Amino acid sequence: MLSVTCTAPVNIAVIKYWGKRNEELILPLNDSISATLSTEHLCTTTTITASPNFTENKITLNGVEESFENKRLLRCLSEVRRRADEHDKCRKEILKWNIHVVTENNFPTAAGLASSASGYACLVYALACLYGIEKEELSAIARQGSGSACRSLYSGFVQWKKGCHDNGSDSIAIQIVPETHWPEMRILILVVNDAKKKTSSTHGMSTSVKTSELLKYRVSSCVDKNIEALTKALHDKDFELFGKITMQDSNQFHAVCLDTYPPCVYMNDISHSIVNVIHQYNKVHGEIKVAYTFDAGPNACLYLLEKDVPDVLRIINYAFPNDNVKSVEYIKGIPVDLPESGTD
Ligand code: DP6
């Protein structure tokens, strides 16, 4: 019997991935950029045990047994096993053993808090550790579990390159800058609602690809320019530019969601109030101090610098006193080590 436990963090996109050119292989229409959070905060922990005595594969998510007949899960498993089989040093004897997977998120699953990103990053990394290929490039495998998962395998600010090969071999994640590059960067997550979202990202983006003209414009005319400018902002530690592009991309992404037919409505009234408060706050200060971004849900992620955290927390608590914002997660940095692992 062999057992491996890994922890992997969530990532929050500042230039969003929305739309696939190949749904089977999860190949995106555009590049995206995100920051990987620290594993102290929002993360997934997964233990995988392989044994010659297990009669079937099993998976438990947050204490509930789920079906193993999940296409994405099976694809990740077979891809890691295929790579391992080609590898001289892998533990070939265990490739045929069944496995039991036990996975836990320390935050609400599927509430637009990127649970599939940390979940599949963790699964793929744990499988790679189990079979002894954890040093390989794994993001192209994690991508096939959930697109955004490929970015959680690297720390700091990370770009998922859409790639141009039909087989997806160059659709991988790369680190733009490490977490040490901009150590003053902080994230606040304002949990507006932690219920499971109504329209999954997978379904929502598939409908956008079929129906949204605005998505075509976003992909053909906007994202590449923003990727270039945001990369420069990161290298230069230019918060003004970073914040502007982050907010504009979030707004365009949600505009695409509304342009989708039927529309995907992820932000709610409180989300929009948060947007207003942030713009007012920046206006009063005559510069961008805080940038918001919203994934496929109503919860806000605020990027800001450490020196501004106390004042921004004060304003948030003042503007949303009645429990409208259920909790505020304070992410001390974007410092992350590669996924942690341990083997017995
Ligand atoms: C809005 O990666 O969850 O968070 O590839 O279908 O699993 P699938 O989608 P997923 O979509 C994430 C969408 C997003 C933007 C982002 O993280 O870039």
Automatic annotation (TrEMBL):
Its EC number is 4.1.1.33. Residues 187-344 form the Mvd1 C-terminal domain. InterPro entries: GHMP_kinase_C_sf, Mev_decarb, Mev_diP_decarb, MVD-like_N, Mvd1_C, Ribosomal_Su5_D2-typ_SF, Ribsml_uS5_D2-typ_fold_subgr. One of its GO terms (molecular function) is diphosphomevalonate decarboxylase activity. Pathway: Steroid biosynthesis; cholesterol biosynthesis. It catalyses: (R)-5-diphosphomevalonate + ATP = isopentenyl diphosphate + ADP + phosphate + CO2. One of its GO terms (biological process) is isopentenyl diphosphate biosynthetic process, mevalonate pathway. Keywords: ATP-binding, Cholesterol biosynthesis, Cholesterol metabolism, Lipid biosynthesis, Lipid metabolism, Lyase, Nucleotide-binding, Steroid biosynthesis, Steroid metabolism, Sterol biosynthesis, Sterol metabolism. SUPFAM superfamilies: GHMP Kinase, C-terminal domain, Ribosomal protein S5 domain 2-like. One of its GO terms (cellular component) is cytosol. Residues 8-173 form the Diphosphomevalonate decarboxylase-like N-terminal domain. PANTHER family: DIPHOSPHOMEVALONATE DECARBOXYLASE (PTHR10977). This is Diphosphomevalonate decarboxylase. It comes from Corethrella appendiculata.
